């Protein structure tokens, strides 16, 4: 079988975890977890959905973008080129999959209909950008980050790529767009978040309250609040641009390391915790956590995304894709 289903029992999670700072642990209820096998040795990580509901994931180690059919677990790999090492992927308004392709230091566009791959190389002054993630703004322009101190954009209408050095130095990592159209990125090495002005491409930096917290990824909720996974501090924080306020919560257990963050359609916040080898759901209203530990050690889920009733991630350490279904879809 290419996939395995696990229904989380009510008492299966809380027994091995201590009470977190700022919240209580709840056992996972009314949810089901399914694991799909990825290509062996692929280091499956960031993923996205195409218009047909197929899942495309980055094989950072085997240089592919691979299509997973959730109905039967079948895989369709597409090579992105010699030396490819894709990191992030997102569906574009043109129906194509757009990839931060660190191995070739380029943005890649893959046509799901034909498997054709187009590359948009970065300028020579950004030869080792260490490309990370990308997002489309409300005008259909693709914005991306590079951890070695770069951010940029590609206009799909013209194919023109622009890139700039990040004022805060190395670190740009996760990126998001708010319902109001604002573009924000998180800086892991810089321990801050920054807003990009799409008209001028200038940035404004905002510092979370915890010093050197390691802001890794960022995701907007439906109100335009920015949720940040803090790698060094093991916290999840939220910033409200309207009143410039911050709140933070420590993840459950000893030594949490918050990597990925995703906000679902209910404004529930999902994170991955390398310390607990788990995916964690945080309820902002009750300030409580629900933990979904992996059934294998070393899962290392580096990215989360989702669609109605579902959260998906790539277990880069186990070459698997994980899906959590909640609510009625469970």
Report on this model:
There is one protein chain. The chain is mainly beta and 330 residues long. It has a single domain, classed as 7 Propeller (Methylamine Dehydrogenase, Chain H), CATH 2.130.10.10. The protein has no helices and 30 strands. It has a 5-stranded antiparallel beta sheet with strand order 1-3-30-29-28, with no helix packed on it. Strand 10 and strand 11 form a beta hairpin. The radius of gyration is 19 Å and the shape is globular.
In short:
The protein is mainly β and about 325 residues long.
Descriptive tags:
carbon-oxygen lyase activity, five-stranded antiparallel β-sheet, 0% helix, mainly beta, five-stranded mixed β-sheet, magnesium ion binding, 330 residues, disordered N terminus, Methylamine Dehydrogenase, Chain H, 30 strands
SSE order: EEEEEEEEEEEEEEEEEEEEEEEEEEEEEE
- What is the terminal separation in angstroms? 20 Å
Major beta sheet summary = 5 strands, antiparallel
- Highest CATH level, the class: Mainly Beta
Quick check: average pLDDT?
A: 92
Radius of gyration: 19 Å
Strand order of the largest sheet: 1-3-30-29-28
Number of domains: 1
* Overall geometry: globular
Strand runs, count:
30
| Share of residues in strands | over 45%
CATH third-level topology: Methylamine Dehydrogenase, Chain H
Structural class category: mainly beta
Total count of helical runs of at least 4 residues: 0
The CATH homologous superfamily is called: YVTN repeat-like/Quinoprotein amine dehydrogenase
Low-confidence blocks of residues: 1-27
Residues in helices, as a percent range: under 10%
What is the second-level CATH architecture? 7 Propeller
Function: Inactivates the type B streptogramin antibiotics by linearizing the lactone ring at the ester linkage, generating a free phenylglycine carboxylate and converting the threonyl moiety into 2-amino-butenoic acid.
Cofactor: Mg(2+)
EC number: 4.2.99.-
GO molecular function, one term: carbon-oxygen lyase activity
